[in-house]
């Protein structure tokens, strides 16, 4: 029995969503096609009807993951974004969390084609922070540097916190210290404003 184009598209989207979550949990190499298809509720043999290779799926799942994550933060100011990013809930929910924190190590060993959606996703995240920082501080060029620095600090803190045993006091302390430091850095008034 042939499936409709609409159903085929729904299946494809289910595979991409499942892959996006599973890759964040287990890495690109830690998740096989059979496991992906099972999570999507489909048979293993149907994978190649949707994607020419696992690498192709990695590219699409990465782009999907970044779009999903960035869309969650649209409308929030930079401080709120970083508070949510540096929360215990985000730390403990890898499958629905930040792709940068979960997969940067894996992405660094991939082809340029696979790394391209990482660069695009990171850029989207930076612009989201930069827009609010520039608005608050009337500081266009400086806002981008602050956004990059804050994201890098938050990312490092999240990775370090995840490396600690679950429930370790240090894991929470790392997040708390990074939240305070990021908030201070992005709320700090630029030199041109302090003289006005």
Automatic annotation (TrEMBL):
Domain of life of the source? Bacteria
Pfam family, any one:
TetR_N
Q: Which PROSITE patterns match?
A: HTH_TETR_2 (PS50977)
Keyword Cell inner membrane assigned to the entry: answer is no
- Residues annotated as signal peptide: none
Identification of the protein by name? TetR family transcriptional regulator
Identify the keywords attached in UniProt to this record, alphabetized.
DNA-binding, Transcription, Transcription regulation
Q: Which residues form the HTH tetR-type domain?
A: 9-69
Q: Which residues bind DNA?
A: 32-51
Q: Name one GO molecular function term.
A: DNA binding
Xref: InterPro entries: Homeodomain-like_sf, HTH_TetR, Tet_transcr_reg_TetR-rel_C_sf
């Amino acid at each position: 029995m042939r499936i409709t184009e609409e159903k085929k598209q729904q299946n494809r989207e289910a595979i991409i969503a499942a892959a996006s979550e599973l890759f964040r949990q287990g890495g690109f190499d830690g998740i096989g096609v059979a496991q992906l298809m099972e999570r999507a509720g489909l048979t293993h043999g149907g994978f190649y009807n949707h994607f020419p290779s696992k690498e192709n799926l990695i590219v699409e799942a990465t782009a999907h993951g970044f779009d999903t994550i960035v869309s969650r933060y649209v409308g929030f100011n930079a401080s709120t974004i970083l508070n949510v990013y540096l929360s215990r809930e985000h730390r403990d929910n890898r499958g629905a969390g930040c792709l940068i924190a979960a997969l940067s190590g894996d992405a660094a060993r991939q082809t340029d084609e696979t790394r391209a959606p990482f660069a695009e996703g990171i850029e989207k995240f930076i612009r989201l922070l930069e827009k609010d920082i520039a608005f608050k501080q009337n500081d266009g060029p400086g806002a981008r540097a602050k956004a990059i620095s804050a994201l890098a600090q938050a990312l490092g803190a999240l990775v370090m916190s995840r490396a600690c045993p679950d429930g370790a006091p240090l894991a929470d302390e790392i997040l708390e210290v990074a939240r305070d430091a990021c908030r201070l850095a992005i709320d700090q008034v630029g030199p041109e404003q302090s003289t006005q």
